[in-house]
Amino acid sequence: MSEIKESELPGIGKKFTLELDSGDKLVVVIHSSGEREVFKFIQDNDEPASVTTLADEEARQIGAILSGTYFQPVIEEAQKLTMKNATMEWIKIAPDSALANKRIEELDIRKKTGVSITTIIRGESVIPNPHSGEIIKPQDTIIIIGGNDQIKNFISTFEIKHRLENDRQ
Amino acid sequence: MIVNESVLSLGISLIALFFAGFLATKVNQSLTAVFIVVGMILQNFFPVTIITEFIATLGIIFMLFMFGLEFSVGSLVNNQRKIFFNGVYDLLFNFPLGMFLGWILGYDLIQTLLFAGIIYVTSSVIVAKSIIDLKRSANPETEYILNILIFEDMFIAAFLACIVGVVNYGHIDTKGMLLVMLKTAAFFLFFIILSRTAKKIIDKVVDIEHTELFIILILSIIVLSAGAASQIGLSEAIGAFLAGLLLSETRQRHRISEAIKPFQQFSTAIFFVTFGMSIDYKHAGSLIPIGIFIFVVSSFSKVFGGYFVGKKYALSKRACLRLGFSLIPRGEFSIILAGTIAMNTNVPYPVKSLTGVYVLLSAILGSILMKESDWFVKNFFESKGKEFQPLGRHSAKD
Q: What residues form DSSP beta bridges with A164?
């Protein structure tokens, strides 16, 4: 991956220079006003061959397209494949649950069932990627991910009664 | 009914500014130059009143405050060596020339120094705007231009503080000079220490939700700093500049800038008009030849200075010349230098009027020259067919 050079243009904004493999240079200037300019310099030329000016909103859209969040042809297919056999489950923790008031590491969920806890929803707050030392509390909702069999295994191992089928609240 | 008349004349000035400014933006001309011309014309209809004079003073204070607020301390610290080297180079090329010219014109020492500052300082407002308009912000020479501008602005701020101090002291002797330098240094140091040690406290103090109270607090900080500077015999402008620097590192910086901008734009416009009104109309005609002469000479030294800075970083010939040409426009700071100090007008070439002519020439012609620098390169520096020769190697960062 090419290195991006960053330099300040006092009174104007910030400049980012990316040397492309072709030897050309792509320079992005972010103005203090929020406007972006994209310059293309061919080889060692010191005058831009082209300039594109983008408003803040336009730049964000283009950015999303370039980074692949708008449309991801290859990766999306891969995602479907993995999701065929994987399930996410929202599980409400009852006060008498086997999971309640235990640290994630002492439950040893991954080893016993193959399932991972991706998120804990506790009232208004959300804990993504909870630490293994995190304690699961009664009334929490946990989001788990795993293969269909693993999820079944999890439910039977911990005797889960409150499954919230994709009900996020 | 002095008040009523001066309010009416202020209104007339403003509407004149609007129409002139409107036309100026249509042809993409610098507002500074146009506002001065408006002032020159309006002096035939009514005099400068107490009100306009007061607003003009505020204009300088607000301008310097905004300047401090938008001053990038970060890039000054990060690129200090580059800024220092390039800045000193530019200073050595142009400041002594200004002193020499001042001496030829028969000015006394203070006026000569002041004139050197006027000749030396490039307008960062005009140049930055032109760079953006001409789509040159990504060009290799642009960083060096901006570095030089930072140094110039910093230098002129300190210079202004010193020279106003000397004028307020009354006469020039070693003791007085030393005293002024000490005072200036102490004042700068006080603000620097304050901004370093009390950063968090300042941040909290200016974090006020209430819009009206927020503006009043910020205004009080500006005016108090300006007043304090004036109290110890320095320029009010420098107090405002340091207040700006002090607030530039707070999280409220953007909000402060938004709040003060309307005040600044209004009062600065009036400042330029007032300056234009003080230019001796009949005298200005005879000043044009000498103005042109000074413009040509000082432009040459700017271009050469800039060219050598560019050469040092191995920029191509074209880039070097663009760098040099971009330093020609003079503007707001030259006017401030000429406008803050009341001077003896009993000389063949009064500094104020000459500065007016000079700034008009360099603001208008300077931006044109900036745009057309490539034309010069093609016609004077390159023989035909040489155009596609590989241009000099350079790196964006040192």
A: A90
d(CA A149, CA A128): 24
Are the Cβ atoms of A46 and B139 closer than 8 angstroms? yes
Task: Please give the residue that has the higher pLDDT: either B344 or A64.
Answer: A64
> Where along chain B do its domains lie?
2-340+348-378
Check CB contact of B286 with chain A, cutoff 8 Å. no
Residue B3's pLDDT is 55
B78 in reach of chain A (CB within 8 A): yes
Which pTM was predicted? 0.72
Tell me the average pLDDT of chain A.
Answer: 80
Please state the ipTM of this predicted complex: 0.73
Interchain pair A12, B393: CB under 8 A: no
The reply to whether residue A44 touches residue B390, judged by beta carbons under 8 angstroms, is yes
Give the pLDDT mean for A48-74.
81
Counted across chains A and B, CB pairs separated by less than 8 A come out at: 74
Per CATH, which fold does A77-164 belong to? Answer: Alpha-Beta Plaits (3.30.70)
Q: Do A46 and B318 touch (CB under 8 A)?
A: yes
Point out the least confidently predicted range of B21-25, B260-264, B313-317.
B313-317
Nearest partner of B302 among B84, B94, B87, judged by Cα: B94
Cβ of B131 under 8 Å from any chain A Cβ?
A: yes
Give the CATH fold of the B2-340+348-378 domain: Na+/H+ antiporter like fold (1.20.1530)
A45 and B CB contact within 8 Å: yes
Round the average pLDDT of chain B to a whole number and report it. 84
Over the stretch A78-115, which tens digit does the pLDDT of each residue have?
444 456 667 777 788 888 888 888 888 888 888 888 88
